[in-house]
Automatic annotation (TrEMBL), chain B:
Name of this chain's protein: DUF1023 domain-containing protein
Source organism, top-level taxon: Bacteria
Record-linked SUPFAM superfamilies: alpha/beta-Hydrolases
Organism: Catenulispora yoronensis
Domain DUF1023: 374-541
Amino acid sequence: MSERGRLMGRSVGRSVGRSRGRTASRRVGAAAAFTVVLLAGAGCSSKGTPDTPGSTSAQTITLDAAKQRVQTYVDQIAAIFPVKPQLVPNGALTSAECQDPDDGGPKGRYDASIDYFLRGVPAAENPAMFAALRSYASQNGYKSIEDNATILTYQNPKDGFRVGMEQSVLGGQGLSLTVSAPCVWPNGTPSA
Amino acid sequence: MAQPTDWRILGFDSVPIPQDPDDLHTWARMWHDYADEIARAQAGTTGLLADPAITGWMGRSGQAFKDACAPFPGMLGTAETAYRSVGDAWDDLSKQVRTLQGQLDGYWNQANALLQKMRADGGLSEEDALTCATADSDARMVELMKSSHMETRSSLGQDGFLNALDALSASRLALEPLRAKMPNLYEQYTGAKAKCENTINDATDLASRILKSAGGTGAKSMDFDQRFAALGGSVADLVLNPDAALGLEDAMFPGPGSDSSEVSWWWASLSQAERDQLIKEHADIVGALNGIPCADRDKANRSVLASQLTSVQDRLKVLDASQPDKDTDGADWDKWNAERNALKDQLKGLQAIDARLHDQNGMPPAFLIGLDRQGLGHAIVAINNPDTANNVITYVPGTTARLGTIGADISRSDRMVGSANDASNGTQVTSSITWVGYDAPQSIEFDSPFADYADAAEGKLRDFEAAIRTTHQGAPSLNTIIGHSYGTTAIGFAMRDYGLPVDRVVFVGSPGVGVDHASDLHIDPSRFWAGASANDPVPQLNTYGNAALLAIPIAGAYLSYLNDGGTHGGWFGQNPAAPEFGGQILPTANGKPVTDGGSHSQYWDPNSPSLKAIGQIVVGGTPHV
């Protein structure tokens, strides 16, 4: 182990190239700040936008409904493209518990997402495919999350669902479409 | 043609040479095949002793081993000769039996013709004719005729029978020279048989002595050990495992400290049957051994998982049936409650793993390549087989990572595989390994600020990464190690102190990685990415003097205190997502506000810039920022 990483006993970090000579007690005090920062937010987690499915302690759509809506989005978006793609699943519809829910709401809720390869689209048509999604997002008031040469992601502010299209960096510039739901209560209401 | 069954006419009570020469030839072929196998073993042994792994074994024991093994090719050559001589002996016997049986059959046919003539000449039954034919003289023949009143049973009547006596005598006389040949023929047969048996006995004795002295008979292997020791070797060097005395199987395992390439070589040297047996009988050892292919570790660990599930559930049932009274037995209740909570936590993790392994539902296959319940429990779960994938991720989670919480981390691996598939247009297979193979800190306040968890993880991470390289099949995979939170610290320490055999590195939400610059991680900074959400407090723990956090009075005060002059610090060294660190910046979303608890765990959100960027990096691409 290098000198930098060699600590005296069970000392805290800050062992790298700093020589401020903190005392152990001050370090433990600093460690407590770790907790304060993270836990202070947890106590303020009831904020949010109550009319969105992903909102905080208010009711949401159920997880099953979110999964259904994810598929509805896929069908809607697939229909807007100038070249009708063949949808080939990349994995399955998945759901995971929201660790730090994007909307500031509480834990215990789940997101959902599904991913498809868009087959049968010549790479030369990719710009037109991206343009179609941009146009659709603009017409429907979607908010841009990411927009660069290979990734285009929007969020529908009305329900928190996101739609992302990606051009692969390998394998012939193929396209894929990911639709994801915000965090929702499995049964639509805050769990006990 | 079938052999005659009644040989009394030639003086035998039973078939004189009962062996089937074809059967004897089959025996000969079997022994010759065995000799051929030994010859191949001899060639293999000669080659093995010339292998650099043996010739390169230095030191006194190495030399002694080479000296002790030197006789092996010669021994096997002698054994081959011995066993081949057995085959030859069977072959010789087969040929002699075939020849002698041919001669015997010829004589029997002649004798039988004379017997049938006697039956016809004397009007006799088969038995009465045989009595006459086997008499050793005419006088004896007449005596037997009279005593048995043979004339009364002759179909020719008494006069006719008496008129046939001369003919009967002539036939009996003709039989005598035939019978006279029998002793010699039979002696030839017994001689051939004895020669074959002697050859077999001598050869098997010789072979047995060879095998014994070669150490091939297990418990009687001391001859080799003694020779080895006499040549200056330490017998301890021949023992691969300190527990070897517990059983032959245990002794087969490479010892502690063996690196993954040694384990891999050893595993490949076993037959499939041996591997299957070890997986069945020592699943916990096989499942944990770096260097064994992931598919085989998975087989073993699935067995371990099943037994652990049963064990935990059974223990919980016992606990549930024996709850102490909280009011009267407070100390016992506390102990009971602690054990029960710990078991329920582990059960949650075991069940999450079990579900992912068995309920794929359109998802890629999962492989369990590590599992134990020591402490809070550890597990290593891969999505797709790392040994055959084009790209391999090792994902090291941070604070609160343990067996009980692995379900959420496996979900992150699933998402990274999905993102990598998007980035490669499904043309490559990416495996993501969730590595909870270390004791991660569990408390942000009391554990995470300390370095000893990362110190203890270094060696385990180094060995695992080396093993993943060793067991990979075909062209080398593109390996990326990804850390989150304290997981980045564990990775950073290992890279700083050992270097890791990875091609790319991604850190998110890092509290520092033990160095101040990417170049100190023994990897080109162009292959290093780090991301920190603007609202993730952890990477900025030492730098937040801004208004957002100052709005939280206590935290703001602490963070002001921690602020090291606005140099993008970090708890365990320079924040790797800061420009000063010298790596590439991983795009991230801002995440939820710090006033709402911050955004420390949103890097794997579906449709997030960070998840998509990770997918591009692990297949060899470069994300746009």
